[in-house]
Amino acid sequence: MADSGRIIVITGNGKGKTTAALGTAFRALGHGQKVCVIQFLKGQGKYGERIMAEKMENLHWFICGKGFVFSKENIEEDREVARQGFALAQEKIGSDLYDLIILDEITYLPHYDFLEVEFIVDLLRNKPKRLSIIVTGRNADPKLMEIADTVSTIESIKHAYEQGIKAQKGIEF
Description:
Oligomer: single chain
Number of helices: 6
Number of domains: 1
CATH class: Alpha Beta
Largest sheet: 6 strands, parallel
Distance between the termini: 39 Å
Structural class: alpha/beta
């Protein structure tokens, strides 16, 4: 009998939520499992993890965002992009093709009122039993943390950006 999948939430204001999730992805890939990453808010860009993902057979990567730019003029466009990403997540979770799915920065959708948290909770509750899902992002809704098997918070003590140090290739992107 296959193991039951898990629901894992990685939240907090510190750097490393996506990185922690991707560490689990590499662990799963090492065991021959299939992994899907859906990024909700990060826009296009030459992030090192995306460059590497293109070289990995069992890793499928989807970008469902325009970047971290929110303004009142584009709120409906941002909301629509978020809903399209959520529809993709529903499709991939329902396909039962993957062993692990990472919903990167999905916690922002209810936080910015792009999607009600109940839709995400319902999706997680009705996932295929064997599937593990990692949810990342700041401000995770308590309802997401309540249904999770594991919740980790990454706290920021100090960040180079706060000291005027620019993002570095291979470290921040």
